[in-house]
Amino acid sequence: MANYHEPVLLEKVIECLDVKPDGFYVDATFGGGGHGLEILKKLKNGKLIAFDQDEDAEANLPDDDRVMFFNHNFRFIKNFLQLNKLVPLDGLFADLGVSSHQLEIPGRGFSTRFSGPLDMRMNQSSELTAADIVNDFDEQHLSKIFRHYGELKNADKLAKIIIKERGKKRIQNTYDLVGLIENLTTKNRRNKFLAQVFQALRIEVNDEINALKELLQQSVDILKTGGRLVIISYHSIEDRLVKNFMKAGNFEGIVHKDFYGNKLTPFEVIHKFVVPGEEEIMNNNRARSAKLRTARKIATND
Predict the structure, then answer these.
(1) pLDDT tens per residue, range 94-123
(2) Model pTM?
(3) Domain 105-206's class?
(4) In the chain, which residues fall in CATH 3.40.50.150?
């Protein structure tokens, strides 16, 4: 588990989940088990249901009958829970960041700091890689990915350079891509720029935005009334979706009302959001951009 990462906002996550000893709780992004195992400490006869599409996460599971593990993307959560009679849930948690474990393995291709294949697959059995995107997607599609998922203002220029260079030879390596694009920004912004490029590719490779939307939509059906939805996000694209869905039950953030003026939303926002303190950020650099949001289910269709 030490090879993964320090769990972000650990105490606050447990507080927000309001863990009950006999409750059923999902850690949708088990990884190194930092959050999930802390939930388990609070359980007596309850269940911890862990999901992770990365098969490496299975090595971190404890030998405990109260734990069930599904080596699958959390977008399939409702089917697996219903099939195994694990609904309704008392709490659902997800940490949407990339683990330090994934970043530190050059062969996974997640980091700009190492030379490795342009892979970025969280699920190693998936077919699409970052190299496929960089070398095979057309200019318009590349530009759209960098603009929407990397929030890059020079997305068009970035796409043009990639198209031009890949005509000479296929771009297969992380360092090949970094060397090709690092001068598109100033030196003091270079690290952030490269991180945004890699973020955009990673999101596309793993279809992360659609997976998150599916998780949020399914949370309404699998949480019991009063159940907690707790999500940590690391960039504005994800956070906006989480914020809007918790507020309104849709991704536009538009709160609809019935004839009598009652809000038609499945959740009550418990607090606006929580961010790590200076001490945690100093001890755990991964926490610097984390934002935690919590909501309580108020609909009664479970």
Answers:
(1) 999 886 667 777 778 778 888 899 999 999
(2) 0.93
(3) mainly alpha
(4) 10-100+208-297
